[in-house]
Write a structure and sequence with these properties.
single chain; two-stranded antiparallel sheet; CBS-domain; disordered N terminus; Clc chloride channel; mainly alpha; 22 helices
């Protein structure tokens, strides 16, 4: 595991090299190729590539670890073999001839939950549940900081949970591994919170792009999954794209040549829609997916809250959830007459999903519905109890099985409108997660990349968009915020956005008394007691502002009346005028207030530099607050 967090930060003496020195040297080399004026590009190429390499290696370690755990527990002891996606590779083989051992299956899954619970709650309680939510929270609430130990604990605990039959996905653990390294690297290099957040998102993309063979979708996923509404972390897309490509390449090189760049579910599906009328039954699928999404989120967080109230040590709760998960799987298996496909409610469940994508008829609608319904329950029991795993993988199984079941029903009623029920499985995968996780764009692309089938973009977009719109009241990821405006990470950005949308001409200016440049100090002293003004514009005979002075500038003259008739306004004013025009935005105004530390600034006409009035810092802030309040009221009325 040390490979994940190699630091290069040796002892700080004359013979050592710090990580910062190494990274700066490498950045200098990259800058030489791209040009010194593009130093920022060089920085992100270097950082994103480093994150991609580590995330790709982490994906390899996680995949092999979970497969090894499965081989030595469920495979050898329980003789359970659920099947893998066509593009997946495992170096282990299982005895397919021996009968299933229900007792050993139940023992293995329960012990797996126990080990996972002890690991997580002893060393890193933040690693419980699905890791993507923890990464989202770190982005919004923790300035992109993730404790270095969390990804390591997450990797081991998730490999044990999934490898022993717990119902969970791979995206959460690997996303947290990548995000954790990105955060770690940003912290060690002393980068800003903004850069560390971007490195965190690049880590998410690299992990997801590697494990699901979907580099393009992963780059968008990491930017989209942060928000509940239709918003993107646009600054993260380029770093995420670089890290995702590198991570995908590193992971793919670990596979045999025949599977190296194969989509996760193979590249031989080749489905397409031949008539616009086929969208009609797919629209009916939306209603099923929306109802299932609502049930999934409610059951998941309902059981999560229920397990929090169980009066036992937190370390034991994942074992209880795992035991109940095993009972659900075995109960289905035996009540169905030992139907092996129903055991897919355990572990990842990708085996039954592969069959649904290739030959849904061989499974039957009843089996597909049972797998989908009980997958919701087993995932909620496994992860809701504190077990470690992702929710994206189970969502693919749930959506794909429901889609295939609806496709079979539609085919039996109107074969011409549903000639291939397997199309419904692919579209169901995308629509279900797009609605449940509020990530329609990345999900559409990801399902296309995972199945190697881009000819279903039209129906996938149609169903995913409808599901996204109809599922806006709930989400699998509690830590999402509605938009960038609502994120603590962008509070300063929103201040600038609002101020840049307002101009000086939008604020009521204060009329102030001007001073003629020829006025003597005695005349000025006569004016001061009659006004509460603190800044005085000085004008010439043509009423053009030629300087300003403050009451502090004339304070030294108060007690020296001998020069009152000799000095005039030109002697106390400064010709370095910090001023504004009506077209300047309020962000510019606020910066100028700060630069000279005054409470008022003169506003001058663009032609002739004549004084139009004084802009108050207090009035600027008041106008900002008024606009923010109006926006909040508009949002509340819309909701």
């Amino acid at each position: 595991m040390a490979l994940l967090f190699v630091t290069l930060d040796l002892e700080r003496d004359s013979n050592s090299i710090s990580m910062g020195t190494v990274m700066k040297s490498l950045a200098a080399v990259v800058s030489w190729f791209v040009g010194t004026e593009n130093a920022s590009i060089a920085k992100w190429i270097l950082l994103s590539s480093a994150i991609g390499i580590v995330a790709g290696l982490g994906a390899i370690v996680f995949q092999i670890s979970s497969q090894a755990v499965f081989h030595h527990t469920l495979g050898n002891l329980a003789h359970y073999s659920p099947g893998e996606p066509r593009g997946e590779h495992t170096p282990f083989t299982h005895d397919a001839e021996s009968p299933l051992s229900p007792v050993m299956l139940l023992v293995a899954i329960t012990l797996g939950g126990l080990v996972s619970g002890i690991l997580v709650y002893t060393f890193a309680p933040e690693a419980e549940g699905h890791g993507t939510d923890a990464a989202i929270e770190a982005f919004h609430q923790k300035r992109g900081y993730i404790k270095p130990l969390i990804p390591i604990v997450k990797l081991v605990a998730s490999a044990v949970t999934i490898g022993t039959g717990g119902s969970g996905g791979r995206e959460g653990p690997i996303a947290q591994i990548g995000a954790g390294f990105g955060s770690f690297l940003g912290t060690r290099l002393g980068l800003s919170s903004r850069d560390r957040r971007l490195m965190l998102t690049a880590g998410i993309a690299a992990g997801v792009g590697s494990i699901f063979r979907a580099p393009l979708a992963a780059a968008i996923f990491s930017a989209e999954i942060l928000y509940r509404d239709a918003d993107l972390e646009t600054d993260a897309i380029i770093p995420s794209a670089i890290s995702s490509i590198v991570g995908f390449s590193v992971y793919s090189l670990s596979l045999p040549a025949d599977k190296r760049f194969m989509p996760l579910f193979g590249n031989g599906l080749g489905y397409s829609v031949t008539s616009i009328a086929e969208l009609l039954p797919l629209t009916l699928l939306v209603a099923v997916l929306v109802a299932a999404s609502f049930a999934y989120v409610r059951v998941f967080y309902g059981l999560h809250a229920a397990f929090k109230k169980v009066p036992v040590s937190p370390q034991l709760r994942p074992a209880i959830g795992a035991f109940l998960t095993g009972l659900c799987g075995l109960g289905l298996y035996f009540t169905s007459g030992r139907n092996p496909h129903l055991l897919s409610v355990l572990s990842t469940g990708y085996g039954v999903l592969q069959t649904a994508l290739e030959n849904a008829q061989s499974l039957g609608a009843t089996t597909l519905i049972l797998v989908a319904v009980f997958k919701i329950l087993t995932t909620s029991l496994t992860i809701g109890s504190g077990g470690s795993g992702g929710v994206f993988g189970p969502s693919m199984v749930i959506g794909g099985c429901l889609g295939a079941a609806v496709g079979l029903a539609a085919h039996s009623v109107v074969p011409s409108l549903a000639p291939k029920p397997e199309i419904f499985a692919i579209v169901g995968m995308a629509g279900f997660f797009a609605g449940s996780a509020h990530a329609p764009i990345s999900t559409i692309i990801m399902v296309s990349e995972m199945t190697g089938d881009y000819r279903l973009l039209l129906p996938t977009m149609w169903v995913s968009t409808l599901c996204f719109l109809l599922c806006h009241r709930w989400s699998l990821y509690e830590k999402q915020v509605p938009t960038r405006m609502d994120s603590p990470a962008h509070r300063g950005d929103f201040l600038v956005d609002v101020l840049e949308g307002l101009h000086v001409k939008d604020v009521q200016l204060r009329q102030r008394e001007t001073i003629r440049e020829s006025m003597t100090m005695k005349q000025i002293m006569d004016v001061l007691p009659t006004t509460r003004q603190s800044i005085f514009p000085v004008v010439d005979m043509g009423d053009r502002v030629v300087g300003v002075f403050s009451i502090d500038d004339v304070r030294s003259y108060f007690f020296d009346q001998s020069i009152w008739t000799l000095a005039n306004a030109r002697d106390v004013m400064t010709t370095r005028i910090v001023s504004l025009t009506p077209k300047d935005d309020l962000n510019t105004a606020l910066r100028r207030f700060t630069s000279v530390n005054v409470d008022e600034l003169p506003v001058l006409s663009e032609e002739g530099a004549k004084l139009l009035g004084m802009l108050s810092r207090k009035d600027t802030v008041a106008e900002y607050n008024r606009r923010v309040l109006a926006h909040q009221e508009a949002v509340a009325a819309h909701a």
